[in-house]
Amino acid sequence: MNANADFRFGVYCGIGATLGVLLIVLGALLLFWRRHHRRAPALHDGYLEHTQDTATDARTQSQPRRRRPQRALGQREAGPELDIAALRPYKLALHELTTVSQRPLGAGAFGEVWLGRYKTQLVAIKRVKSRSKKHVAGFIDEIKLVASLDHDCIVAFVGASWRRPIDVECVTEYMDQGDLRSYLGRQSSAAFAWDAKLDSIGRVVQGLVYLHSCDPPIIHRDLKSRNVLLDSVKGTKLTDFGVARGCDDDDDVLTSCIGTHQWMAPEIILGTFYNTSADVYSFEDLRNSLGI
């Protein structure tokens, strides 16, 4: 009898433990689903077309369109004021910057990247699609961050351009082989030599070490193959700092579910506090995509 009781007790314990694990997994999946449906897609600037979050699209299409209320004549748009003073030292002469491509090199939910020429140099020109003050103010913050970075493994900042603050553009060096994802799609595994793979991944490491060594440390928060650019001469460099943040930002920012879900660290998906280690998780996914 004691043996049978012990056996039943063991079975019940096993069932209880299994149910507990299932409840934890289901809770995490529910939290992920709610965050995934609630947040808007981030702005990207790789050299490939980026699509919006399908969950966001479905939610938008399922609701009837509402007519936007008309503002009275002369009424200003509500939102943050556009403080562009910090970019004035980097302002490029308008007559020296031209767009040379007929279509964007890449496009995202909120922005586009065009091929341009500054003086005799080919450049990438990033623009926001939306002219809302909220989006432009966030873009100005991104330009300020990019302007502060100086490393051989980070896409080089050339300057900023605008006629009006609402039209501001970010100008960076042009990388002639595009982003890593499209490059891997064009090349066979044999064509992308092992030494070249090691060099590329090594330069990504150097770029991350630089970002994480800044004061305060900078978390990229969207490290993936589309945000790694290649050039036949300049090698591999990191790009797209639209959602990057310093580690001294408030807790609300560093618990936000921001980035691309496929590449996200678990702590970001679960909405818990995270730091530079989140980039290390994304780096491992990037390394695996190269077969290293």
UniProtKB/TrEMBL annotation:
Report residues binding ATP: 126
Q: Which residues cross the membrane?
A: 12-33
GO MF entries: ATP binding; protein serine/threonine kinase activity
The source's domain of life comes to Eukaryota
- State the SMART domains in the record: S_TKc
The alphabetical list of record keywords is: ATP-binding, Kinase, Membrane, Nucleotide-binding, Serine/threonine-protein kinase, Transferase, Transmembrane, Transmembrane helix
PANTHER family named in the record: PROTEIN KINASE DOMAIN-CONTAINING PROTEIN, SERINE/THREONINE-PROTEIN KINASE TNNI3K-RELATED
Q: What is this protein called?
A: TKL protein kinase
